Amino acid sequence: MFAGRSDVMDNLPRPTGEGQWMAPAPTGTFLFVSPLEQHRVHWSLSWRAPLCLAAQLNAKLKDPSTAQEVLDLVTSKAAPYGEPFPTLFRNTALSGLYASPLMEKLPHSNTAPVICIGDCLHPMTPFSGNGANMAFCDAWQLAQRLTDPTHATLDEAVAAFDAEAGPRSTQALSRGAHLLSLCHQQGIRYWLIRAFICIVRVVLGASSFGDTVKLWRFLGRLFGAPKTSEKL
What we know:
Blueprint: E1 2-8, E2 21-24, E3 30-37, E4 40-46, H1 52-62, H2 67-77, H3 85-90, E5 98-100, H4 131-146, H5 154-182, H6 187-204, H7 209-222
Antiparallel strand pairs: 1-4, 1-5, 2-3, 3-4
């Protein structure tokens, strides 16, 4: 489950105004905050839930009499984080809330003349950090195959593109599956992961957002995240 929103606040509280911020909670939720400008941020909160929940929440958001229930639910899910996040949620306009299920699907084979790339070919969750990258790679490789004189027909060019895009995107989906699992751990696994990250960051001096993501990817594999499937 994914709930996100762009907010306007007079003064962004720390740490939301200092760059991208992300954190799991022992309850299995994961919070991500990213400043967009001086008084505006984007936040998202995710947790494991039935796929139908997103549709139910969006239906409530369309009804002014029930929209506040969605914000109350998100606020309760984010309770373990403490300030400044309750303040952040209180400054969220109901008109900007939305919910969407996080899903990944393995790439399919294309059939000309319709050729899919990007999320049309292999939907990815934001946790993989590879969605836009894979789309650019798809476009580049498809253009190369379509202009390759060794391919006598369009079908040959498309088949060659699928042979490249399929394994590449499947590997990215696998990384996303590991991160998706890691971000929503609960109980003893959560505390083990948190302790390990703190220790490794101190030892290796991993202070940047990118360094932390790399650590998470490693831990996702270490703690036995599920393999990529049709639906995660």
